[in-house]
Amino acid sequence: MHYYCTLFDSNYLTRGIAMLESLQKHSQDYHLYILAFDDIAYKILNDLNYPHTTIISMQDFEDSELLALKPHRTRGEYCWTCTPSVILYCIQTYSLPHCTYLDADLYFYDDPAILVDEMGEDSILITLHRYTPRYNQEKTSGIYCVQFMTFKNDERGMKALKWWRERCNEWCYARFEDGKFGDQKYLDDWSTRFEGVHILQNLRGGLAPWNIQQFPSLSPIFYHFHHLKFIGENKVDLGPYTLPQNTLESIYKPYIQHLLRLREEFGENNYDARSIPKFTWKTPLRFIKRKLKNGYNVFSNSDFLGY
């Protein structure tokens, strides 16, 4: 049995559900714990009643330490702050032998158990960003990505997880400061700080827009849809990266189609964070820059429905 956990609110609901349904499609023996980050998400997920899932409310999850931090961090920063805490909560509350954290904007094309099993006798699994050189942000965003991380319920795994929770509670903000950034830069020295750390070697795990240029023909186990944003009702922005043509067809197309099907199911409710960015004098310059760098990826939704 493989145990996973994630967290998302109603703004990310369709992405979280798409991730869940892709996990359901490709996994056989699993259980997913979902921290519903607001009451709307909690109610909808309970009503949907997916098999092999447990929905956790914020009221059950938040302890006094987190509640004291909450007013002083943005919603995004608080979400990052909670990441190690939700892994620890699931392991301790449900007596799990191990738990793998999943970002809500991942999407599975194969069974992630392949990746978890790679760690063997080690206690902690982390994934490299593997940035394409022109997108390299290791200095400010970290060597490793908090997207897919496994901790075993043993001495080595719990030591690292509790240390990480303490650091995130102390400082977790959406800025680079004193060698820290969010919850992520803390991982940079884990291969030497902690024992039993396994760095994922399977290149099919951790594909994302910042590295897919190096692996255009690789079939992902999961893909991280970082920066994907819906613009109003009819457009989607895939982010400022150069994306191979076959990546649009084989990776982005099924994901966006899935999100749009879920949008239809929820009717007029905005559960995919679609919005219209404010237009400023910088807006045309920003898009010209992206075009010059071959990173203008704004499409009509219909482009993917009939791609």
TrEMBL record:
One of its GO terms (molecular function) is transferase activity. The keyword Transferase applies. Keywords: Transferase. It comes from the Bacteria. This is Glycosyl transferase. It comes from Helicobacter brantae.
